[in-house]
């Protein structure tokens, strides 16, 4: 019998802190950066936000419960050190050359792919709503490159790069965008519905917030496999990452899932890609308390704010959060301050965002920053990086060629996959199941 | 299994059934009593309290005004018959328990399903037996825990999500429509969602408008979703098991007033077919198509009709989506007259879809327009008298049949 029961879980002992982007320059992961958006851009309410006391964080969260198990207190000390202290040298792992190049290549793939998407869209090769990820690559690469194959990723409509980082071949993603039968979803999903069972990408959801419960379910499943089915792995629980934006953080499903994930200590990480804009709605105009990371402690989980334009910082935070989840200590809310260089979608004229804000973030381009880091630390030469650029260009070109030459879905595909068991189409007047009707397999049956 | 054997005698001669048509569990039932068998004639399933054919007294029919079945089965006769007697909610629990025992990936999620045992006691005792993770008490967040069920279904589990009342699942409509129904298709077939969403719905006993909703009409358009409605302990257990074993997402509609129906069901394991309708009473003059609680109103009306000399054929369609056009069609080809009795609202209800399906497929066989009796298009009032007038009553059914058969 599974011994799990939903007892009242004492809140964590640690407090959560502000941006790790304000760490002193001695950290190797520290890039030369400009101040964060909250105090550099002249949003009227920014200053009042900063001056608001962080009352929700310290006193309410720290409990006087002395009965917590010993192991968690040992962890809490470490966690406290990580999240609170500026002196994290001992825990910052110097990035090896291999890792640095892997991160660089992945980010360049994301950027090149999205740029190619824009080109193809304007040439009429793909249609509908296409949401590009330019500028946010550090978040995807920083998190997903730490995952195992069996870990899950759930995203929103801005999902091309999440799929690519998780390992879905560019060919399949591009073919899916072109609506071809060789796409990862056989052309049936499109830009906003990237799924891959082989790489454990659980979507691709068009409505915001809709994927968060699905991610919570995947995390529940991981816990269930471990506790009920006893299919445990030596590395720990399978982790699920849920990516979503700042707009989603005002949605009910977000809060409901924060509650459930912490209640049951599910191995999930809620990654907020706060790019400050939900189409044309500024995050500050939509949210009563714009500091999203604070919403974690309100539910009893750690909330972390990280500079999402810095892949190494994101990676560091991700490492800790993933390790926590694998150990069964529960969820983490990570707010990544990031920015999208393009509009919300390719149909968005992007007139509301001010040029100086765009320029500010363009100066913090994560790829350029990583390139600078790699060269400054002698991890690779300029020409090696250029050859990676060239290789990625070839990969993307090949993806386009593959997609172009792939066949469109035939009519016979129309009625397939509506049901996992096609008997769900029912019994026809002749007594046979509809799916046995020859017209059905031609896609022309009236069902 | 006296009742089923009696049923087999009354049904048309059966022809051997190809095994792929029959969705049965591991144990075999005897050929004559295979209720899931699709033979050329009628598919007869009888509840112990009911008797087929001309106006024999059917005590069980009086349960229309009292949802609880009268404990009329004499103690002496009960002991000698095979099978065991139980109430509908117990039948659901038995089905669920058997499936959870058989497959450890089957789990239950819902409000108060664990420690409380379910607000209608369908999951009573299961949490003690299987643990709090397999019978999960969720917070009050329908949209999210339904989504959680979908996410876990995609990753290897087979969850049964309970809506405490079907109406609450309106809050989960986003997840049910977008993810449950569509995700298998949108992912190109990569992920299957073997989820069962169940709960009590329908007009109860003065529960007020919001607790008296019939969601089958709202869900029926969602592509990729199967819907079944149970009406007797026998089909409740069989459909529950079939729904859990199905790879498709299935919505199982139960009715608040039917939970205390009593029936004798077989001891052997059985699984019914999700797509098939149930012949309740064969007849010659008119086909009455119904489901869930209205089945009992129809059977009560049938008693009156038989006394008046009519011979109605009553089919419990059971499968609300997709319709079993074979059973329905065979009936129409015999009687040429159709009356649909449903509890949904008139607008956009199951009856509306059924009507158009019949017109599309069996127009040539109809001798009269299809009559559809549905609930009034009003929010269900609290007052008992008004509530009674909202749903279809047996007198209206009798009047409709008389009109059809003129």
TrEMBL record, chain A:
E.C. designation(s): 1.2.4.1
Positions of the Dehydrogenase E1 component domain: 106-409
Domain of life assignment: Eukaryota
Alphabetical list of InterPro entries matching this protein: DH_E1, PDH_E1_Alpha_Subunit, Pyrv_DH_E1_asu_subgrp-y, THDP-binding
Protein name as it appears in the record: Pyruvate dehydrogenase E1 component subunit alpha
CDD domains in alphabetical order: TPP_E1_PDC_ADC_BCADC
Example GO molecular function: pyruvate dehydrogenase (acetyl-transferring) activity
Assigned keywords, A-Z: Oxidoreductase, Pyruvate, Thiamine pyrophosphate
Self-association and partners: Tetramer of 2 alpha and 2 beta subunits.
Compositionally skewed regions (Polar residues) per UniProt: 14-25
Gene Ontology BP, a term: pyruvate decarboxylation to acetyl-CoA
Functional description taken from the UniProt entry: The pyruvate dehydrogenase complex catalyzes the overall conversion of pyruvate to acetyl-CoA and CO(2). It contains multiple copies of three enzymatic components: pyruvate dehydrogenase (E1), dihydrolipoamide acetyltransferase (E2) and lipoamide dehydrogenase (E3).
Ranges for region Disordered: 1-30
Catalytic activity: N(6)-[(R)-lipoyl]-L-lysyl-[protein] + pyruvate + H(+) = N(6)-[(R)-S(8)-acetyldihydrolipoyl]-L-lysyl-[protein] + CO2
Annotated PANTHER family: PYRUVATE DEHYDROGENASE E1 COMPONENT SUBUNIT ALPHA, PYRUVATE DEHYDROGENASE E1 COMPONENT, ALPHA SUBUNIT BACTERIAL AND ORGANELLAR
Cofactors that this protein relies on: thiamine diphosphate
Keyword check for Ion transport: no
Pfam families xrefs: E1_dh
Keyword match Oxidoreductase: yes
Automatic annotation (TrEMBL), chain B:
Reaction catalyzed: N(6)-[(R)-lipoyl]-L-lysyl-[protein] + pyruvate + H(+) = N(6)-[(R)-S(8)-acetyldihydrolipoyl]-L-lysyl-[protein] + CO2
Keywords for the protein's UniProt record, in alphabetical order: Chloroplast, Metal-binding, Oxidoreductase, Plastid, Potassium, Pyruvate, Thiamine pyrophosphate, Transit peptide
Gene3D superfamilies on file: 3.40.50.920, 3.40.50.970
Protein EC: 1.2.4.1
SMART domains assigned: Transket_pyr
Signal peptide per UniProt: none
Top-level lineage group: Eukaryota
GO molecular function: metal ion binding; pyruvate dehydrogenase (acetyl-transferring) activity
Compartment(s): Plastid, Chloroplast
Cellular compartments per GO CC: chloroplast
Broadest EC class assigned to this enzyme: oxidoreductase
Alphabetized InterPro entries for the sequence: THDP-binding, Transketo_C/PFOR_II, Transketolase-like_Pyr-bd, Transketolase_C
Domain Transketolase-like pyrimidine-binding, chain residue ranges per copy: 86-261
Cofactor(s) needed by this chain: thiamine diphosphate
Quaternary structure note: Tetramer of 2 alpha and 2 beta subunits.
Function: The pyruvate dehydrogenase complex catalyzes the overall conversion of pyruvate to acetyl-CoA and CO(2). It contains multiple copies of three enzymatic components: pyruvate dehydrogenase (E1), dihydrolipoamide acetyltransferase (E2) and lipoamide dehydrogenase (E3).
Name of this chain's protein: pyruvate dehydrogenase (acetyl-transferring)
Organism encoding this protein: Rhynchospora pubera
